[in-house]
Design a protein that fits this description.
The complex is a heterodimer of chains A (559) and B (255).
Chain A (H helix, E strand, L loop, with lengths): L9 H9 L9 E2 L10 H17 L23 E2 L6 E2 L10 H11 L1 E5 L1 H10 L6 H14 L22 E6 L2 H6 L8 H4 L2 H11 L3 E6 L2 H6 L4 H17 L8 H12 L1 E2 L21 H7 L2 H4 L4 H25 L5 H5 L7 H17 L9 H21 L1 H6 L3 H20 L2 H19 L8 H5 L2 H4 L27 H15 L7 H6 L12 H9 L17
Antiparallel strand pairs in A: 2-3, 4-6, 4-7, 5-6
Chain B lengths: L12 H11 L10 H8 L24 H5 L4 H5 L3 E8 L8 H11 L4 E4 L4 E6 H13 L8 E3 L11 E2 L11 E3 L5 E5 L5 E9 L4 H7 L12 E2 L2 E2 L3 H18 L3
Antiparallel strand pairs in B: 1-3, 1-4, 2-3, 6-7, 7-8, 9-10
């Protein structure tokens, strides 16, 4: 049996963490118990806390109240290398509160809405007898990019938003109709032919056809004050006002209701579904975001299409931060600890190494990506091999095991590598998911332990839902999401499921995983977050090199 | 012929040890005094009365219930004891037991207990006088090595960390220590509160003995899947493949 990949990509990261000449394979070590002072970020926290304490007149952050006076740092507090990049940051820098890039990623999702233009044009043409031409569309888009950030049209006396606070807001359109696209002012167009490789562009245009869509990104500051449910309302109001202005309509005529209905309901694509009442969240909140949509939001598929592992792992990173750190870790549980678990999937090149091992193994055997038969036997063969390889690395490099010191971290990484390998090899996400669950069971069998509370329900029962298409438990992976039954509980899963969704299509070199409109919308050059290089952007955020939108400093006294 | 449970597949030492843990047919290696076990558990002072959450069952006038007639209560349940716990952390460097095998041992052999299995710790909850018995059984038997395993109610991390230079499992709260005489001593209870005296837990296993008694598959011990490039699956893997495939196909149910 051929073993091609022997790169051990994680060694570079481990050397950065533990020291260049450190014995990474030693099973015993002297624990120096240096406490929080050994770490620059903890020192910064303690110094800042002293200042804050004086100002507040009450105590705050003090690591010496931890564990009865025994603080963090009884072992080495090591930094984290963002996988596939040169960024090395402290673990604290990857908590979303400390990382503006992670915040912006989520803000970019919830401030986005896709609204069709065709229905509105039909109302204008058929009901009102208005002429719609490329020139009127360009005029409409100029007015819309004035109005969408929160400026007035039609009214003569009105409060407005400061352009410096809402400069990230923009609306561009896209279409599968090359003739129309040629007539649109380039500043208002997401040019599919320019931003996507030729084959992907043809595929996307064929899927979108002659329809025309608006990629709308309302101001970040709006969704930070309200929530994702606001986005469609904010945009619909400004769309209607813009139509009234651009097409000289009566502000009160009933036809405006048709435009409003189209903008709020009939021609709208929310980024995520509204959740059941017990979750109490509207649309455009993370719990309703499908794995396929997230896979399409990430743009690595158009910038590094030949490397399906890289494509998939950027999706994993986005999902780990959004689903684990923000959704489960904060919306759902209210805790702060999820970051520690989630980062395992996008730091230190561990998952990268396991995935490249598996994909090299499969590509060698089946002569390329997406060439293996789409069968359960393939999932068995690949997941068993990749999982065994991964467990062997943890066993051979005790520093690696120590880096992923929680079973949930190891379980996620081993299962993700197994699932992504099987998905890329077969081009089928359900085969990938089958590989995921087999990895979980093998991991538990080998070490007699798995993840949080054994991942009993989600993973040990999980194989039964892989191929199920019954209404309450089935679905292709692309259409499952954070609120799928059994998925709404454990860290270290949902980003990886999104990665498996992506992997199947990345292996097939597809232009999109689930929805072409999402793929094109997030190719908008006006996005603040870098959706093509998720992990590097997280690194920038951690290194304090990333400037997020939605800041209020313009209208506040300087610190 | 009377049914004899098989418990677990495989002819390797890991398979055999796993069967021993599940069957409860374990070798006793040490005898830690009951009062010392109670002190380390930290729920009541040794010799103190048991706290109760309800009167003894005999005084409660229980309803006429066939299940109650079939199942005799444990001593702790009969007395109305509160439910308490003991939680263990087992090193991945060849500790004799692993979280699942502690749980299987508990679920199969300990009446009235509630095992919980995580990656770095394993808890069993039961009525107080029952859990004291179950904990002493674990401490005394080959399930436990006093250097590679310890009771930790909180701040449990250590299972996946490198060992201390003296072979002890890392413990942030230093609840146990290696004495100059080569014995391991407990100095704090499960949650890290200092004990009023050091408790001698005896000598740790040698590395060879730990490898002999372990229930973990490892590449540097007994591998589960052979070696990369020359895979050879343990019977446990073949059984698991079969189970996973049937679970997956059952979920499909094309009818």
């Amino acid at each position: 049996m051929a073993v091609k990949h022997t790169k051990k990509l994680f060694i570079k990261a481990l050397n950065k963490k533990f020291g260049k000449d450190f014995d990474l394979a030693g099973q015993k070590v002297e624990y120096k118990r240096l406490g929080p002072e050994q770490n620059a970020r903890k020192r910064e926290f303690m110094e800042y806390a002293k200042k804050v304490e004086g100002k507040r007149g009450m105590t705050g952050y003090n690591p010496y109240v931890h564990a009865g006076g025994i603080p963090l740092g009884q072992r080495q507090l090591v930094p984290y290398k963002l996988s596939g990049t040169e960024y090395v940051v402290e673990g604290d820098d990857l908590h979303f509160v400390n990382n503006p890039a992670i915040q912006q990623m989520w803000d970019d999702v919830r401030r986005t809405i896709v609204v069709g233009l065709d229905m509105a044009h039909e109302v204008l043409q058929k009901r009102l007898g208005k002429e719609v031409t490329p020139e009127t569309i360009n005029n409409y888009l100029e007015i819309l990019n004035h109005a969408m950030p929160g400026a007035a049209v039609v009214q003569e006396h009105m409060v407005e938003t400061h352009p410096g606070l809402v400069d990230d807001c923009n609306v561009r359109i896209f279409t599968g109709d090359d003739a129309l696209a040629d007539e649109i002012d380039p500043q208002y167009l997401i040019d599919i032919n320019k931003v996507f490789p030729a084959e992907q562009a043809e595929s996307l245009k064929a899927a979108i056809g002659k329809t025309t869509w608006q990629a709308i990104h309302v101001p970040t500051i709006v969704v930070r004050s309200c929530d994702g449910g606001t986005t469609s309302r904010w945009s619909a109001m400004q769309l209607c006002m813009t139509f009234i202005d651009a097409y000289n309509m009566c502000a009160g005529e009933a036809a405006v209701a048709d435009l409003a209905y189209a903008a709020k309901h009939a021609a709208v694509l929310q980024m995520s579904e509204m959740l059941p009442a017990r979750r109490a969240r509207g649309p455009n909140n993370p719990g309703g975001l499908s794995f396929g949509f997230l896979a399409d939001m990430v743009q690595t598929s158009r910038t590094a299409a030949a490397d399906p592992v890289k494509v998939s792992l950027n999706v994993v990173a986005a999902g780990a931060a959004l689903y684990d750190q923000i959704w489960l870790g904060s919306y759902m549980s209210g805790g702060v600890g999820f970051t520690q678990y989630a980062t395992a999937a996008y730091t230190n090149d561990v998952l990268d190494d396991f995935c490249y091992y598996g994909v090299d193994f499969a590509a060698d055997k089946f002569k390329g990506f997406a060439k293996a038969p789409k069968t359960i036997d393939i999932a068995k063969e690949l997941a068993t091999e990749v999982n065994a390889y991964g467990m062997e690395q943890y066993e051979s490099f005790p520093t690696l095991l120590e880096d992923h010191f929680g079973g949930s971290q190891r379980a996620s990484v081993l299962a993700a590598a197994s699932g992504i390998t099987a998905a890329i090899a077969t081009g089928h996400s359900q085969i990938g998911l089958a590989g995921w669950y087999l990895s979980m069971l093998l991991h538990k069998e080998g070490w007699g332990r798995l993840g949080f509370f054994g991942y009993d329900l989600q993973d040990q029962c999980g194989p039964t839902n892989v191929f199920s298409y019954q209404s309450d438990e089935g679905n292709p992976v692309e259409l499952r999401g954070a609120n799928y039954p059994n998925y709404a509980m454990n860290v270290g899963h949902q980003g990886e499921y999104a990665g498996i969704s992506s992997a199947a299509h990345a292996g097939r070199m597809d232009a999109f995983a689930c929805n072409p409109l999402i793929k094109v919308t997030f190719a908008n050059p006006g996005m603040v977050f870098d959706w093509a290089d998720v992990r590097a952007c997280f690194g920038k955020g951690g290194a304090r090199e990333f400037r997020a939108a939605g800041e209020r400093s313009l209208v506040m006294p300087a610190v | 012929m009377a049914y004899k449970p098989q418990f677990y597949p495989g002819t390797t030492t890991v398979g055999i040890n796993r069967r021993k843990h599940m069957s409860g047919n374990l070798e006793k290696l040490r005898d830690i005094p009951e009062a010392d076990v109670v002190a380390i558990m930290g729920h009541r002072a040794p010799g103190a009365d048991y706290s109760s959450t309800h009167p003894p069952l005999k005084e409660m006038g229980e309803p006429d219930c066939p299940i109650r007639q079939i199942v005799a209560p444990t001593a702790g349940a009969a007395a109305g004891d509160r439910v308490r716990y003991s939680q263990w952390t087992d090193s991945m460097y060849f500790a004799p037991s692993t979280p699942y095998w502690r749980s299987y041992w508990g679920a199969i052999n300990c009446k009235g207990c509630d095992p919980g299995t995580l990656s770095g710790r394993q808890i069993i909850e039961a009525r107080e006088r029952d859990i004291e018995i179950y904990t002493k059984q674990q401490y005394d038997s080959e399930m436990t090595d006093v250097a590679l395993c310890s009771m930790r109610g909180c701040t449990v991390h250590g299972h996946s960390l490198r060992l201390e230079e003296n072979g002890m499992q890392f413990d942030m709260l230093s609840r146990t220590e290696m004495g100059k005489d080569g014995n391991v001593y407990a100095t704090k209870d499960q949650v890290g509160i200092p004990l009023d005296r050091k408790i001698n837990l005896g000598k740790p296993m040698t590395e060879a003995e730990a490898k002999k008694r372990t229930t973990i598959f490892r590449a540097d011990g007994l591998p589960m899947c052979g070696k990369a490039g020359a895979r050879k699956y343990d019977e446990a893997v073949e059984a698991l493949h079969h189970m996973w495939e049937l679970r997956s196909k059952w979920g499909f149910r094309p009818e």
